[in-house]
Amino acid sequence: MSKRELEFSTKYTLKHSQQYHHKHQKTLGRRISNWREQQMAARALALAGHPASVLDLPCGTGRFWPLLARKQDRTILAADNSEAMLAVAQEVNPPTLLARVKPFPCSAFDIPMGNDSVDHIFCMRLLHHITQPKDRLAILKEFHRVTRDTVALSLWVDGNYKALRRQKLEARRTHKSYQNRIVIERKVIEREFGDAGFVITGHFDFLKFYAMWRLYVLKKNPS
Fewer CB in a 10 Å sphere around the end CB: N or C, the chain? Predict the structure, then answer.
């Protein structure tokens, strides 16, 4: 598969990656948001059967590594398209945690791993950046190839107050340039999951009927 570079991915310089790491603890609101995401992620891992091997992609600066490392015998692979993110992750995480994680750079479109390589792919805060259906399907199919069992991924969905508010704001914008974050209709993304060969095991909402974030747990379709 040829390497793809999406516009949003070019912003992750070393400085931006450092800022990204710190923003989740910067304010009380951010800390509460991070706590809720960690809670959702823990529930997703449990629903996925507490997988023995996990690929964290994109891993960013390792925000979820302490959670992934709670299972003592878990193999943790961590990848990101941004080498700056990986560099910051190596700086900010303790050596005991870094010893548990095997990081490497790669694109979600082209993962340098064989078929059925890991039990689970853990994908937080990527899909809401992928605006084109063909690109989402390419990523989902690559996840389907690499995982032997399950995937957990988060994105923005419709059917809540925040999504409706964002839709109204977008409608008033006169400058229709490239969007690097989008709300995806639930019926659309759920159909795309099926097209890529997954069935939905379950989902967790950040705050039902209010917030846009939803975390899906998918399983390879046995058929």
Answer: C
